[in-house]
Amino acid sequence: MSFQAPKGVKEYVPPQAATFYAIRRAFADAAGRAGYAYLETAVFEDTQLFARGVGESTDVVSKEMYTFTDRGGRSLTLRPEFTAGVLRAVLEYGLHRGQLPVKVWTDGPVFRAEAPQEGRYRQFYQLDLEAIGSEDPAVDAETIAVAWRWYQDLGLTQVRLLLNSLGCKECRPIYRARLQEFLRALDLDAATRERIEINPLRVLDDKRPEVRAQLEGAPLIADHLCADCKTYHDTVKQLLADLSIAWEDAPRLVRGLDYYTRTTFEFDHPLLGAQSGIGGGGRYDGLSEAIGGPALPGIGFGLGLDRTVIALEREGVQPATAARVEVYGVPLGDDARRRMFLLVDELRRAGVSADMSFGGKGLKGAMKGADRSGARFALILGERDLAARAVQLKDLTTAEQTEVPLDSVVDVLKGKVQ
Ligand code: HAM
């Protein structure tokens, strides 16, 4: 009997895993450069955190959560997103009592029971960044810029930034009522009629052509923002323009989670078909109170790592991945093997990545290993070399071979690979 990963679980193995890892590292750099600190939070949480935070009426909470009862009878849920858990941790550890905004980022697997297809998985991976405790349009623009610069650093050129404002607790209810009024007059099925009463904004997101056609004249939030929200949104746009970050107004962008207020955005990639949303985020000024915390505004985003890997493949971009080993040791005979084992350790300590042939392979088999490793140099150490306290250094790109004293080979290689 053999096993396979559960349906819809996305895994990364070499060589694709190198891309996955490289883009995470690039994000760690991008977030760090902007003053965001790393944090690691629970993979599973009290189910109520998501029910209250993300919203009972969302697809994520009502249909897609992996919920289970633990041995103590508690209802727990594998995180379907990061924001609620990150905010819970910020409150639990009192980070919001220090300097504001609390600027943090994290990454890892997230879980949603969706119908799997390319770019849509049940275990997938997000990079998540949050700025909590500040209601300043510059923070909105900064978070967007961190993601935008990261896409640029990776070499992606076709990412689009879609931008909207969802208003605040003053203007959204007025808009919501206007929208409901408009929607109730349309010819819609029972399920959609139900949605009009619970979450009318989501109806704007309906993809069915017969519904789309009827939505043509729907009232838009942009025309119903209060003066404060409008000024706030205009300032965010001005700051993005100052940063030369191009956005497109997306007046129907609503997002699938209930906590959003004001600034909302999505990063879209045209080469990804139905799964074109490669990242998304926005402001969530009421979330802290919804999960029992003090009033604490926040903004952040989640970027889909899996879809970013696909976007890179579609654009034909190879990010600078962590290099394979630079040096590969080929020891011939027991004494040479023992010496090579030490030499490889010395090289690594000197900052030169190195690997060696294991399992007592002969010259041919070991050289094949050197080729496959992708190393630029092979170090061949036979019994005679050992007696002469020397080693053969072969440049695998030119096939040129030189003899180097064992005592100085680490220095010689350090000079060649740096
Ligand atoms: P989200 O839009 O639900 O936002 O997810 C963020 C990103 O995760 C999406 O843009 C997409 O790239 C990726 N994603 C979502 N579902 C899947 C899936 N089934 N398979 C593969 N990738 C997927 C959030 O999760 C919010 N917590 C973002 C946020 C942070 N808002 C404020 N702070």
Describe the structure.
The chain is an alpha+beta fold and 418 residues long. 39% of the residues lie in helices and 21% in strands. Helix 1 (16-33) packs antiparallel against helix 5. It starts with 15 loop residues before the first helix and ends with a helix. The site of histidyl-adenosine monophosphate has 27 residues, from strand 6, strand 10, strand 11 and helix 12.
Shape: elongated
Overall helicity: 25-40%
Q: In percent, how much strand structure appears in the residues?
A: 15-25%
For CATH, the homologous superfamily of the largest domain is named as Bira Bifunctional Protein, Domain 2
Q: How far apart lie the N and C ends?
A: 48 Å
Radius of gyration: 27 Å
Strand order of the largest sheet: 1-5-6-11-10-9-7-8
According to DSSP, the number of beta strands is: 16
Classified by CATH, the class of the largest domain is Alpha Beta
Describe the sheet with the most strands: 8 strands, mixed
Structure keywords:
418 residues; Rossmann fold; 2 domains; five-stranded mixed sheet; 16 strands; binds histidyl-adenosine monophosphate
